[in-house]
């Protein structure tokens, strides 16, 4: 069993900063990529940023130059530093782990966290 636990969401004024953290725990042999998606009310879930185990990053155009994703492979943890936040960044942010190899079975799965609310006031 693998779990993703997120923390760091909250309420912030426009122009402020927040840091989201996500830790994967359980019977994990390896994780190919970790990242963050978000879903605003009445909108589809969208990519925010991802990072592979090798350090390759990918960002949505809307967050480039404002958000930074980093990863501690040994701790199966991913961090999203969000700066210069805008009201349109308001959403539930979901942690995502792609191609998780389960240590005990060698099965491969993708996992989602439960989500954390980020609200940016104008």
């Amino acid at each position: 069993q693998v779990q993703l636990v997120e923390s760091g969401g909250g309420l912030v004024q426009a122009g402020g900063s927040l840091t989201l953290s996500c830790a994967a725990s359980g019977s994990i042999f390896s994780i190919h990529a970790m990242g963050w998606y978000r879903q605003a009310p009445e909108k589809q879930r969208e990519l925010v940023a991802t990072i592979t185990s090798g350090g390759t990053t990918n960002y949505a155009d809307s967050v480039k130059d404002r958000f930074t994703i980093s990863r501690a492979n040994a701790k199966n943890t991913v961090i999203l530093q969000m700066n210069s936040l805008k009201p349109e960044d308001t959403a539930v942010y979901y942690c995502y782990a792609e191609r998780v190899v389960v240590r005990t079975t060698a099965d491969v799965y993708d996992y989602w966290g439960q989500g954390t609310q980020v609200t940016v006031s104008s």
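The longest strand covers residues 28-39. The chain has a mean pLDDT of 96.
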